Amino acid sequence: MNDLSAPRPNNLDAFWMPYTDNKHFKANPRMLYRAEGMSYFTPEGREVLDGTAGLWCCNAGHGRREITEAIQKQAALMDFAPTFNMGHPIAFEAAARVAEMTPDGMDRVFFTNSGSESADTALKIALAYHKARGQSSRVRLIGRERGYHGVGFGGMSVGGIGANRKQFSALLPYVDHLPHTHQPAKNAFTRGQPEHGAELADVLESLVALHGAETIAAVMVEPVAGSTGVLVPPKGYLERLRAICDKHGILLIYDEVITGFGRLGTNFGAERLGVVPDIMTMAKGLTNAAVPMGAVAVREGVYDAIVNGMPGGIELFHGYTYSGHPLASAAAIATLELHRSEDLPGRARAIEPYWQEAVHSLRGLPNVIDTRDIGLIGAVELSPREGKPTERALAIFRRCFDTGVLVRVTGDIVALSPPLIIEKHHVDRLINTLGDAITAEAA
């Protein structure tokens, strides 16, 4: 037996870190110890302003007492209960709270544990929907270049970030991709939605002509592509995508893992951008990241086709041990109550003009080739160093951290997504620190 009281070495070897240069990190560790409000604190007590809401997820800020107490109370009452042919009240309450926030008609909620699981769940629901309607030939899934839908085989296959795919050759069959919408030659330094690029949605018509509409089950896109470096949809793009999907009986899936729960100044990106999907994935801000949880919301017609279209028994052979976990459900309820009582989307809308000016104030600094924004998201794109892609952005990331600000980099893009409780003096500190780091890494 393991002796849990025996001392164990406290080193960095055992943890294989995700999406990390493990060799570099373990030689030069950057450690966080606690968090409160807008900030992290290192083990030495140094404050680090959070410019990324953790990983796009702590929208209500850190250390929220209301969420902590809800988790503690539920843990003391019941730690776990299965949701396979069983139920517990708090999971149903959490689903109802989510359904209050989703667009009208998207009132059925399936719980997962992460954005990756939500993506794969949404794709499986799309396939099950068409099969329930007698259209089993609809097995093809359409994603988009530079799209990110987590790291499950479904989401990774439909996703379109090359680095996420190249190590893993065995991906799903029957997948194709739309082109991404990033057009720096036409849209550089755009504030909000770009003017150019709506016609890129028409490539879906070409894919229909190539494969046949009767073979395509769904199109999956992020309303705003976040992890690939903040690609904001051109005006009219999502409207055209929606129209083509409707024309050919194709389901439209939004990955709202990043854009959900106030990030764009509305409950979901569908509301801000004015185009509602058939299926919507979410995670991250759902519980303010206090307990892992994801969800998939679907239109009533999708639910009815699968559930009411079955004569009896289990309608969807899919689920997770921790679907609707009691602690996660408690965290979700407390988080969504904070969103309502403090009007976090409204706070994001109120500070968005100041945020936009701040992000675009970095234009003109050395090597800055684009700045872009929407809601409380910003991006600064940099020209790479000769023969050393990503090196400049990583150096800026490390310099910012050493100066007390956390930013995120993807390729040669610095992405910003602060908690929605950010105030103007936080914006100033974040942008000034980033600007100083960009200037310092000019060579």
From TrEMBL:
Obligatory cofactor(s): pyridoxal 5'-phosphate
Pfam families listed in its UniProt record: Aminotran_3
GO annotation (BP), single: biotin biosynthetic process
CDD domains: OAT_like
Taxonomic superkingdom: Bacteria
Entries under InterPro entries matching the protein: Aminotrans_3 (IPR005814), Aminotrans_3_PPA_site (IPR049704), PyrdxlP-dep_Trfase (IPR015424), PyrdxlP-dep_Trfase_major (IPR015421), PyrdxlP-dep_Trfase_small (IPR015422)
Keywords: Aminotransferase, Pyridoxal phosphate, Transferase
GO molecular function, one term: pyridoxal phosphate binding
Family: Belongs to the class-III pyridoxal-phosphate-dependent aminotransferase family.
Protein name according to UniProt: Aspartate aminotransferase family protein
Organism listed in the record: Plastoroseomonas arctica
Taxonomic path: Bacteria, Pseudomonadati, Pseudomonadota, Alphaproteobacteria, Acetobacterales
